[in-house]
Design a protein that fits this description.
It is a single chain. It contains twelve helices and 19 strands. With 415 residues, it is of the alpha/beta class. The chain has two domains: 301 residues, Aminopeptidase (3-Layer(aba) Sandwich), CATH 3.40.630; 108 residues, Alpha-Beta Plaits (2-Layer Sandwich), CATH 3.30.70. The chain has a six-stranded mixed sheet, with helices on both faces. Helix 2 crosses helix 6 and helix 2 crosses helix 12.
């Protein structure tokens, strides 16, 4: 009896999925038609170097994106990202409805000039490879071709779709985060297109991200001849090493706060006691109060010195804030999960340790906009020479974005 009930339940579930998919067969057909054009766009983008600060490549990609957005009917504005160069591209497409929806992702990568030539776009065993193919040119392509699908469907029930492509995310978005925060303020929803990680049987969107701070530790000592008069020196490297060991416990496992020292510099010549040494670290956190805790504890800890006569300075620089757990993002994630069910697929809502521009789009204390992260392609190996995306993720991700825009637009009738 229990097996029969289970079989009936499974059959009902499959029928429901089939019925849902049939309800939106025109959408599925439209996004299927965009599969090959998306891969072609992705190939074109990947094969142009656009590392942060590489002005020539960023300019070339900007021209491509601007042309594509204009063909979609967008009005274009640009905002210079002065710190590293390049422009933040803002394209606005007017619709017939009232809802404002923002789609955003960056078009810079972490890779140096020449990477696109050395590792040109290729597809092999169901994976597309190339520098920035997932992080985040795949997300760029998903935005553009979801809008193409909507154009094919003749759908314009949104009030306005705003597309934001920024050129400096890989360096913390110093020249674009204010634009993002300002543009997002009056939006109903912001969808962000960083990639998600490929795991067997797992697909995901992100509802919570960590914040990022940057730690700096500097030691000033005294130089002296390492053979003739080492006792007259004050070894900055020794003191730095002592401090790094002392500061190793600044993280908090219960709060999932981490501080990892990632860069160390010191000394000039082998025969000179080093008078200067410094280190830089990466802090990740969910709890915003952790900034003050880490700063205060570190400054107290560094008062305990090993090498007499050295000077020690610690400071913490704020980077991206976290995207905290909030009901608006959770609601968007549930909508996304329901849409994936139309394809007979499941979707998880996850927290990640990486910081993204989604946090700049979030406005604490306000119920707008709702922000959802990781709608880009599914892949892995990001920031490495093995970076890839799964070709089979193209259609589901196009379908998800297209249907999300439709669902968010239709919410206007429920207000």
């Amino acid at each position: 009896m229990r097996l029969s009930m289970l079989a009936m339940g499974l059959a009902y579930g499959l029928c429901t999925v089939s019925a849902q998919a049939a309800d939106y067969q025109d959408v599925q057909d439209a996004v299927e038609q965009q599969r090959e054009p998306l891969l072609k766009t992705l190939e074109t983008l990947v094969n142009v170097d656009s590392g942060t600060g590489y002005s020539e490549g960023l300019s070339d990609v900007e021209a491509m994106l601007t042309q594509h957005l204009k063909a979609l009917g967008a009005q274009i504005e640009t905002y210079p990202a002065k710190t590293y160069g390049g422009n933040t591209i803002v394209g606005r497409i007017q619709g017939e409805g009232s809802r404002k929806i923002m789609l955003m992702i960056h078009y810079d990568t972490v890779f140096d000039e020449g990477a696109a030539t050395e590792r040109a776009f290729r597809i092999e065993d169901g994976r597309a490879y190339g520098p920035g193919v997932g992080d985040a040119k795949g997300g760029v392509a998903v935005i553009l071709h979801s809008l193409e699908a909507l154009k094919t469907l003749g759908y314009d029930d949104y009030g306005q779709v705003t597309v934001v492509f920024n050129p400096d995310e890989e360096k913390g978005s110093p020249g674009s985060h204010e634009v993002i925060h300002k543009l997002s303020a009056d939006q109903d929803a912001v969808l962000v297109f960083e990639p998600t990680f490929a795991e067997p049987g797992v697909d995901a969107v992100t509802v919570v991200t960590k914040g990022i701070n940057y730690a700096f530790l500097e030691v000033k000592g005294r130089a002296s001849h390492a053979g003739g008069a080492p006792e007259k020196g004050r070894n900055a490297i020794m003191e730095l090493s002592h401090q790094l060991l002392q500061l190793d416990d600044l993280g908090d496992a219960d709060k999932q706060t981490t501080l990892n020292w990632t860069i160390v510099e010191g000394g000039a010549k082998r025969n000179i006691i080093p008078e200067h040494a410094k280190a830089e670290g990466d802090m990740r956190y969910f709890d915003s109060s952790e900034y003050e805790r880490v700063l205060n504890e570190a400054q107290k800890i560094t008062e305990n010195q090993l090498v007499e006569g050295t000077e020690v300075a610690f400071h913490l620089e704020k980077g991206r804030p976290p995207l905290p757990d909030n009901p608006q993002s959770q609601k968007l994630a549930k909508q996304a999960q329901k849409i994936y069910q139309e394809l007979g697929q499941s979707l998880q809502a996850v927290e990640i340790g990486g910081g993204t521009d989604a946090a700049y789009a979030y406005h604490e204390g306000s119920d707008k906009p709702a922000v959802l992260e990781s709608l880009g392609l599914v892949g892995g190996g990001y920031h490495s020479d093995k970076e890839f995306v799964l070709v089979d993720s193209v259609v589901p991700r196009l379908y998800l974005t297209t249907r999300m825009i439709m669902e968010l637009s239709d919410e206007a009738s429920d207000d």
